[in-house]
Specification:
This protein has helices at 57-67, 75-90, 94-108, 160-165, 185-195, 211-220, 260-267, 288-291, 297-304, 318-332, 338-350, 356-359, 389-392, 401-411, 414-424, 434-450, 454-464, 466-478; strands at residues 16-24, 38-45, 51-56, 113-119, 146-151, 172-176, 203-206, 225-231, 234-236, 242-245, 257-258, 274-280, 308-312, 360-364. The chain has 479 residues and is an alpha/beta fold. It has three domains: 16-148, no CATH class; 160-370, Rossmann fold, CATH 3.40.50; 397-478. The strands form three sheets. The protein has a six-stranded mixed β-sheet with strand order 7-6-8-12-13-14, sandwiched between helices. The protein starts with 15 loop residues before the first strand and ends with a helix. The relative contact order is 0.11.
């Protein structure tokens, strides 16, 4: 579990990787059960000797229900209780204390930490291990340098060589189903693609996605699929497990819940050609209920071979879905790897006042998949490549981040700035006093920069204020 990283990325600080493997003492691993009472398990840390532990599901299950409740007031308390109980479970394992000290030292050195959860006991994937206390006493996933990951032991035969051999290319497939148009995630995806001149022909949008149209789109593509994203509602299947509300045909008025097996069939074989699957839906990940019955959608596709699969095990807020999408594409399309993008997204979610940050569940078929960029780094020349004509109709000389801020501060009137702030979903208080307005504008843009939204802001500026940008940019460069 300690492969070399020099072949993946140019860094002298390889991540600290910790394997946490949990197996049932009884009954047989791999079977689906609805746990109740006290269950016995054995825990291995980095494949060292195991320790016997027990978990009282009678205590844990009510907190899991509160965590998934739509009553937001109950969730934070449930998260604290679950985190305390999972931390208490691991404190029964002597080698976990050693692993915690290793984490402390790695984080002090600025090294990233990967915690990989493996188990053949399905019910354990429904537990939010992200809430386990780290070296500083806070939840592991509240630290932007820590990424909790899940892997079914026999999920895939993907190797590091397979990951490295793949081209850093492939299309983006974005599909949405149901009454989700107000989220406008498709526009966010388009804006991120426009900002780096991602080829328009490599972006496939399905505004009224059905299982049939999704299958046809994926079936027509050859080679790897860089990103496959679904935006829809989570829904209960007839057996009580969670699935995705996606119609079977092009008639959106015919309701249907796509369960894990159906979604895996639509993705097709080999599923390993999908490098990143992003399920933007409520409870698309593992929940206590789903793991007692069958694999969740995200786990089923992970076990089929998808390189990295991400979903929310809790209800996902509208703002969370937007922040997750914007942060991921902003990093990935600029040559960042999946791990960097996920950590940036979780940091953005942590600041939105919900438990979206703790809800993200990340499955990996092979750890190296997190460190291989999905797309090449965009060209840094002052003129766009040939593909720009499909987005903006011609070449343009794009401003730097610093120039962009200066342009906006000098040239945006309060009404226009307020309109842009609303499009970016970033709060803005507009003042009438000119000096205060300039100061507020600069503070707003610095906030935009911190949130990783400058690329999106740049696109809006170019689209709605092209003449102003050109004029102000010329003045700045002549000065």
């Amino acid at each position: 579990m300690r492969p070399q990283h020099a072949t993946i990325r140019d860094t002298s600080e390889a991540p600290l990787r910790i394997l946490l493997k949990v197996v049932r003492a009884a009954p047989e691993n791999g079977t689906f059960i609805e746990p109740s009472g006290r269950q016995a398990y054995r825990v291995f840390v980095d494949d060292h000797w195991s320790s016997a532990v027990s978990l009282d599901w009678g205590e844990v299950t009510p907190y899991l229900s509160d965590l998934a409740s739509t009553e937001e007031a109950r969730a934070p308390s449930a998260a604290r209780e679950l985190g305390a109980r999972l931390t208490g479970l691991l404190t029964q394992v002597p080698t976990w204390a050693i692993a915690t000290e290793h984490m402390r030292e790695a984080l002090r050195q600025g090294r990233p930490v990967d915690l990989l959860i493996q188990s053949e006991a399905p019910e354990l994937y429904g537990l939010p291990w992200e809430l386990v206390a780290g070296p500083n006493g806070l939840a592991l996933s509240s630290n932007s340098s820590v990424l909790v990951q899940y892997m079914w032991p026999s999920a895939s035969t993907t190797t590091a060589q397979d990951v490295l051999a793949r081209d850093r290319s492939g299309p983006i497939v974005f599909g949405q189903a149901g009454d989700v148009e107000l989220l406008r995630l498709d526009r966010d995806v388009v804006a991120c693609c426009e900002a780096v001149d991602f080829p328009r022909r490599s972006l496939h949008l399905l505004p009224q996605m059905s299982l049939r149209s999704l299958g046809e789109t994926l079936g027509a593509l050859t080679g790897p699929v860089a990103v496959l994203q679904w935006l829809c509602h989570g829904a209960r299947a007839p057996d009580g497990s969670f699935g995705l509300a996606i119609p079977t045909s092009d008639d959106p008025h015919v309701p249907h819940v796509g369960d894990a097996e159906q979604m895996a069939q639509v993705v097709g074989s080999p599923a390993s050609r999908v490098r990143l699957l992003l399920i933007t839906a409520c409870q698309g990940g593992d929940t206590a209920r789903s793991t007692a019955l069958r694999s969740s959608v995200v786990q089923q596709l992970h076990r089929a071979g998808v390189s990295v699969a991400v979903a929310s095990r809790l209800p996902l807020s509208t703002r969370g879905a937007q922040q997750l999408t914007r942060a991921l594409y902003a990093h990935l399309l600029r040559g960042g790897n999946i791990r960097e993008a996920l950590c940036a997204a979780r940091s953005a979610l942590y600041a939105n006042g919900t438990l979206d940050w703790a809800s993200l569940q990340v499955y990996v078929a092979h750890e190296e998949a997190l460190y291989a960029p999905l797309f090449p780094t965009p060209a840094t020349s002052s003129t766009h490549q040939e593909t720009s004509s499909s987005w903006q109709g011609g070449e343009a000389d794009l401003p730097t981040d610093e120039e962009l801020i200066e342009i906006a501060v000098r040239g945006l009137d309060p009404t226009a700035l307020k309109r842009l702030a609303a499009r970016l979903n970033v709060p803005l208080a507009v003042h009438t006093d000119n000096s205060t307005q300039e100061e507020q504008t600069r503070e707003f843009l610095q906030d935009v920069q911190r949130r990783g939204l400058l690329a999106r802001f740049q696109t809006l500026m170019l689209r709605h204020h092209a003449r102003l940008v050109e004029h102000q940019l010329s003045r700045l460069r002549e000065a």
